[in-house]
Specification:
By secondary structure, this protein is mostly helical. The chain has helices at about 5-25, 30-35, 40-45, 55-65, 70, 75-100.
Length: about 100
């Protein structure tokens, strides 16, 4: 059994939420509106600055249609690096799409 460090778990959950948000092409503000959360709170969760409640984790999982176990299954360093690379790519795509809208 893996023994979690709280900060490590918060970081992993935040990255996974950020990844799924960007895959749906949503801003933190848009996701917050969908889940009745403030965009600041969504950002703090994504940056691992706060503990998401069980209620909010259920909201995220239901909205993204992902299994709660995904958030709590320990990822390898390589898997986390791949997620961070994908987030970086999706962030650039998201910014480019929003530039062309205005």
């Amino acid at each position: 059994m893996y023994k979690w460090d709280i900060e490590e778990l918060k970081f992993q959950i935040g990255k996974l939420i950020q990844l799924h948000r960007l895959k749906k092409n949503l801003s933190q503000f848009q996701l917050g509106n969908e889940l009745n959360l403030s965009s600041n709170h969504v950002g703090r969760i994504e940056r691992a600055e706060t503990n998401p409640t069980i209620e909010n984790l259920v909201k995220f999982c239901n909205f993204f249609e992902i299994d709660m176990l995904l958030l709590f299954t320990k990822l390898t360093d390589k898997e986390l690096k791949n997620i961070e690379s994908e987030i970086e790519y999706l962030q650039k795509e998201f910014k480019n799409k929003n530039k062309t809208k205005s």
